[in-house]
Amino acid sequence: MEKTEWYLEYEIQHNRPGLLGDISSLLGMLSINIITINGVENSRRGMLLLSRKDEQITRLKSILETMETINVTKMRKPKLRDRLAVRHGRYIHSDIDDKKTFRFVRTELGLLVDFLAELFKKEGHKLIGIRGMPRVGKTESIVASSVCANKRWLFVSSTLLKQTIRSQLIKDEYNVDNLYIIDGIVSTQRASEKHWELVREIMRLPATKVVEHPDIFVQQTEYTLNDFDYIIELRNDENEEIKYDPIEKPKFDQDGGFSMFDF
């Protein structure tokens, strides 16, 4: 029978010597293997387990619930957040009211890169928005995640090295395995109608698109935040407020270029 992975997380009520050894021995007696173990946030510990039968997990849970020294908080098939929690020793925080919004601080860039890389590996259309103040590490995290996911990234609009505003792609750049990066502020402030035609064309591709500053992006387009599959918030610290100066829609001349008064 094929083995199944499970995620066990418990909160330590009384951290006595030998507690982990007792739990490990219990797992051994039930023929459940430990793949990975790590502390996850404060007094919690997470484990990735491997079991041949679901009955073994049911027995394990019933026994652990009788132990006064721990409180089982999760026993389930592992989600992406569970795997990353064990790998990094900390949990990804999501918005209480909006479950598709995930929050990171700059000290968690490694966790963010891992999280994005796993999202990038999934096939098909995904629209991901990233909020954050300037120089917090948004673009660098996207590029690093692309490398981890073995994806080719393309800047449709960006300011990473120099201001990039694409109005067309070459044939080889139309690939569902590519990652398309759009800076919502750059596209809004400095882009022509030809650029927006390209953006709409890319949005229709069954590929992964990442939009920096999604709130600005949706102000000037027909897209809404409901169109995004994930929203990432990256801050320098937990108390930082992400805010933007008012942005006006640029004026174009009759040829679709910039008016001289825009510069």
CATH architecture of the largest domain: 3-Layer(aba) Sandwich
Strand order of the largest sheet: 5-6-13-7-12-11-8
CATH T-level topology of the largest domain:
Rossmann fold
Please compute the radius of gyration using only Cα atoms: 23 Å
**Quantity of strands, as a count:** 13
- Count of helical regions: 8
Please give the alpha-carbon distance between the first and last residues: 67 Å
Structural class: alpha/beta
Average pLDDT works out at 88
Outline type: elongated
The ordered string of helix (H) and strand (E) elements is: EHEEHEHEEHEHEEEEHHEHE
Query: Uncertain regions: pLDDT < 50 for 5+ in a row?
Result: 250-263
In this structure, how is the largest beta sheet organized?
7 strands, mixed
Broad CATH class of the largest domain:
Alpha Beta
Quick tags:
8 helices, Alpha-Beta Plaits, Rossmann fold, elongated, 263 residues, disordered C terminus
What does this structure look like?
The structure is a single chain. With 263 residues, this protein is an alpha/beta fold. It folds into two domains: 4-86, ACT domain (Alpha-Beta Plaits); 92-262, 3-Layer(aba) Sandwich (Rossmann fold). The protein is 30% helix and 25% strand. It is built from eight helices and 13 strands. The chain has helices at residues 19-29, 54-64, 80-88, 109-121, 138-148, 184-190, 193-203, 214-219; strands at 4-12, 33-39, 44-51, 70-76, 93-94, 101-105, 126-131, 153-155, 157-158, 164-165, 179-183, 208-212, 230-235. A seven-stranded mixed sheet has the order 5-6-13-7-12-11-8, with helices on both faces. The chain has a four-stranded antiparallel sheet with strand order 2-3-1-4, with helices on both faces. Strands 9-10 form a two-stranded antiparallel ribbon. α3 (80-88) runs antiparallel to α4 (109-121) and α4 (109-121) packs across α5. The relative contact order is 0.13.
